[in-house]
Design a protein that fits this description.
The protein is mostly helical. The chain has helices at about 1-20, 35-40, 40-50, 60-70, 75-80, 80-90, 100-125, 135-165, 170-180, 195-210, 215, 220-230, 245-250, 270-275, 295-310, 335-345, 350-355, 390-395, 405, 425, 435, 470-475; strands at about 235, 285, 360, 375, 415, 445-450, 455-460, 480-485. The strands form 4 sheets. A two-stranded antiparallel ribbon has the order 1-2. A two-stranded antiparallel sheet has the order 3-4. It has a two-stranded antiparallel sheet with strand order 5-8.
Length: about 500
Amino acid sequence: MVILRRLSQTVSCGLFIYVLWSTTYPLAGTIKPAMLFKSDPLMMAMVSISQRVILPGVAISIAMLLIAAALGRYFCGWVCPLGAAMDITAALKKKHAILSDNRSAALRKIKFFFLGAFLILALAGIQVAWICDPVTIAARFVSMNMIPALTWAADRIFIFLIRDCNMHGAISDLYHTLESNLLGVKVFYFAHSAAILSFFAAICAASFILQRFWCRAVCPLGALYSLAGRFSRLRRTTGGCVKCGRCVNSCRMGAIKKDFSYSQGECILCMECIYDCPSHVTKFGFSGASRPPVNTESRKNFILILLSSLFTMGFAFPAGRKRSPGGVIRPPAALEEDHFVNRCIRCGNCMKVCPTNGLQPVMFQAGPGGIWTPQLVPETGYCEYLCTLCGKTCPTGAIPEITQEQKAVTKLGIAEIDRSTCLPWAKNKECIVCQEHCPVGEKAIKLDTYAGGPAKPYIDERLCVGCGICQNKCPVQPVRAVKVSPRNADRKCI
């Protein structure tokens, strides 16, 4: 069973990485990346509640909870990619801290507080569960840290072997083969990737001290699965136990108590206790017996946690208030700012799939509520004129899926030319780079040939879609003479 669990973790993580790796231009994967997040009941529930909608694919997450009600908290031990990363980290240390039953119980309550707080906030119309959701945390790390680092390292190794070590032939052929698929990810940079890496590393480092600390104390998805797992008939039995205490010491979740009973909702079915038992009496099986009495104290604590979370209602934005994105340029046809910020789960799919690397994570430019949502940074990369990949990979519809015909006329903003720095306007020098690169058929950047001297560009706001290619290609440095602002952007209403 332990081998099967580790195999399940390996396959799940491999599939998780494969789907995210193939989320690039063009979409090569057979599994849509949105499916990874539609199977996440925490994010699907919190987005649906905060937006008062039923998201497409929510049935998948409901099915995941029903499986948990039948099998227990299987996801955390057998599937979760963040859980696998914590297990790998914990394996580097032989002995870990063991808490008393009282401390373990107190620690476990914290994640229910997080779940309750996120639920209250969602009811108030604010979705912030993405902060602690393990699937999105792992996805951000894989998309914005691991894949760029691995592709960069592999590319440099091949170049070193071929160019500096003269290892041509088979090595060169292998490099060119991989370059068209695995190494075809051309994204080597994301803003704030260090912060994303640090957050992921801190979670893993905590498990080096106390096994599965995040799962025990913080994870709201684990809390949700824990509540569902309490209905499971798959239970641990220890008939004939000699009370040696090995299972208590080896349980990575602290689910086995000092009296050798266990918290069913906290067990992640790692199965280690079966093989640690010297008497071989520990077993897991489906029991038809009546369920043990409900712990009314736990129920009371959870209700108190929900009630105490009501203070967070004070931070809710009043109904009808619209937040401004400031100078942030959102992806094409993105929902109106309030809805966009609440529905975006910060998974990174849209940024990963952007063929020009133009979509970058926001820090505080759109306010505290907009952290790690996507924005277009034209100086890094422009919005490809007919590309609609960000909408195809968004799991929650924060970026709606649109056709190429719709994309061609969808405004992200309006370009503006600073005549005090533009070469033709300010220095009377010839330059029509912005006009040449404008992808709009009728050219949204026109040339004024009647003002004397070289042709001078100006923006036709009726035609400009704010794709940012003019800003990206402008030769004026360090501040470009043409800049896109989110003014008049086409934001979808719901």
